[in-house]
Amino acid sequence: MRLFLETVRRGAAPKPRRTARREIRLREFPAGRWSEVEFAVDTDAARRLAEVRLVLSGSAEAECRFHFADARIKRQDGSEYALLNRDFPDYLAGMKKPLAAAPAKNLPKRNQLQIGYPNNWHILYDAKHLPEIGRLMKQYLPEYSIVLSCAQTPEPELAAVLPQLPENLFYQFQKAQHGIQYPMLYDALPRDWRGNQQNKRFNSIVATHPLMQRALKNQMDYAATLGVNNFLSYDYVWPYLGGRWGYDKATVAAFREDLKGKDEGLEMDFETGGPRRTIHFHDYFEELYGRRFHPRDLGLNSWEEFFPVTERAAAAPAATLETQRNFTLFLVLCHYEWLRQAQRFNQWAQSHGGTYDYVLNGEGWVNGNDHIGLLRLAGTGIVAPEFFMHTPEKLETIYRGLGRYVRAGKRLNKSLGACFEVSLGGSGHPYWDLRTGYLVAYSIAALGAAPLHHDFQRAWERNNPLDKTAFHLMMAQARAFRQTNLDRTEKVPGNDVLHVTLRSVGRRIDGLFSDSRILRITRQQDSWVPALIDHEIRYEQTDPSELPLLLDSARIVFLSSPVTTPRCAAQLEQWLERGGKSLLLHTTLPFRQDEGIYNSGTKPGKALFRGFRNGKPAGHTLLTDASGAPLLTRIDRGRGSAVYYLHASPVRSSSATMKQVMTSLKKELRLPVVQLAEHGENAVVLPYQSPDCRVVAVWNRKLRDEAAAGLTNWIKTRWRQRHRFFDPEAYAFRCEQPGAACSAAVRVEKPGSYRVYRFLADREELIPVRKDGVLKLELHDALGELFYVAEDTPAFRKRLQKLRMERAESTPFLTEQNEKWDSRK
After folding, report:
1. Is the predicted pLDDT of residue 678 greater than 70, yes or no?
2. Which of 35, 210, 452, 639 has its CA 20 to 30 A from that of 702?
3. What pTM was computed for the model?
4. How far is CA 374 from CA 149, 204, 342, 407, 500, in A?
């Protein structure tokens, strides 16, 4: 076994770190007595001492016990600094004045491409390449500001680099994991439901302890002294690792403060407009549950007695209503505290004349986050949900559900962006090939998501096929975002048909992006979504908080909310009274009032909607099942309005039953479709529109679902390789699929000759449309394609000439590397 003192020195100029090891020869020291050892380390302005650490190495069988104490740095002037201390690790220690008197640059005002880097070294060591980066980005993304987002506390030397950034380049300090050794000394780390303290670094943050809040602010204050004014949190979530966290003293104390209304509150804007105001926890809880709890509702005398129960206790068969409500309150408190820390981040950034952006994992009770709440929070910058490998499988629900967040961003004057993590931690083998990545990016950008955050890039000098592919994939997706702006593409409006469910905030329920496969497996809620997607219905996903803002344009509402508040039911009743409206319910939904239980475990009770007697609908039977029992009933409300009640679960019913139901409803309600399903059952169709043409993303459903089903094995065999490699055959999703074929059919305005341009294949063709107005789009030898469609006119042919020029500029980033590479060879 060997012990080393390791020192790291850094120069004033951005040069590689110089690491030196000096062995402490344990065998030369007498046992049982203190011995001293001293090493000389020459330092000056060009060789700054950056790190000092002990390194112990040896075989697994080796054993040695020693005590280490009184480590000191002795300076030439005779002063000393004790390395082993409990002093707060202040980033500003020794800094007599800021290295930058003001932010190095103003914040970007144009659309952005945020490029994630794992650390600052690529900026410092590649400083000579910054002009080249600026020129290349100006060539291919001329309208964009490029933000270099670095996931590491900035080095002091960065202060000299930031003012030299080209005009289109900006720097961002990206925060994720924090150290745990110092907070552990003061019991400042969160504890899980077993009482275990956090013992390793996570991307998640629980900052309920004042020490953690001070440390996080200290990081930002230090970065500001270098000229940094742009900040971001990556994977900002509340931890759920083997269960819920938040059972430590500091977090419970914060919960009690929230419950008593003695916290500072959340400064919020509102989608309905009006002045900004401060809300407190019980206001927030009422927004989600339509009610307020008092201590007696949990069997408590005061909020000072509150302590969160475990999820296991709340889910037990014998759990009381008080226990279930306790856990409900706990979940919502986690969301609220998550927003409190985000508010601190926003305020700290603003104190430095800056902004704070967020890259977020999926919105849900597991992650303890609230995307809509964060958009509403005063001072929030860009909010970018993260899209992972399963995105192609979820595109139908993303197409219908992302609008909920985009609309909120527009109402609140905030940016709802998108982050693509396209490989293991951003640095492994991508799971989408270049053209698949382009099609995914276009499909999401056309829904209104902007800007793009892309993780991760490595050094600018790309010396292997993997790094080249990672860069090309980023550029392909950035070009896709740019192309949607040039095309002025937007989703074909679908606000006349709404699907209403609950967001997964403070509730154990599937989120708004959950796909049909997940909804069928979990059955946490009896959702209309699988049936609506199976039958190609065009609709907008929303939740009860947004419903009043959309009802004016709505003709049909499918309700899948497992519980309903009296307020929501009253809003729908008033909407039906307008005439010409249709509300669709099923099974026990009309009888399940929200009682404040996190898993919606409410027993059916009194009907929340008119037209039901003794638990049954009083209406006309439209369909019966095989036994002759009612299957679909219509309750007429007058003036052309009606409630349609499905007696069976839309998820648990057979596909044959739901085909019968949906065929009847499509005819009865004139439901709009994204494609004519009878012509294209093997294709996924996402229709968009631009001022001069239609843009249609088409995917081969069978190939996409097969690739998605194989992801578990692909993760084990490809994604989790411990070494870096590249293999052009190793993508989980490959666009090139020789021999594959499927078709889609969409209805156009009138018959005639239509010009169709396939962007990814870079090919034009003429397709005749007959009197039925059906245009058939054939997809051959490919996983997906982006079709531009319009009548064959001189104006559209001219439009395609310009589009093909844009396609030619993107060609270098859509061309695959054909060589294999392995970092071990």
Report:
1. no
2. 452
3. 0.93
4. 20, 16, 8, 14, 21
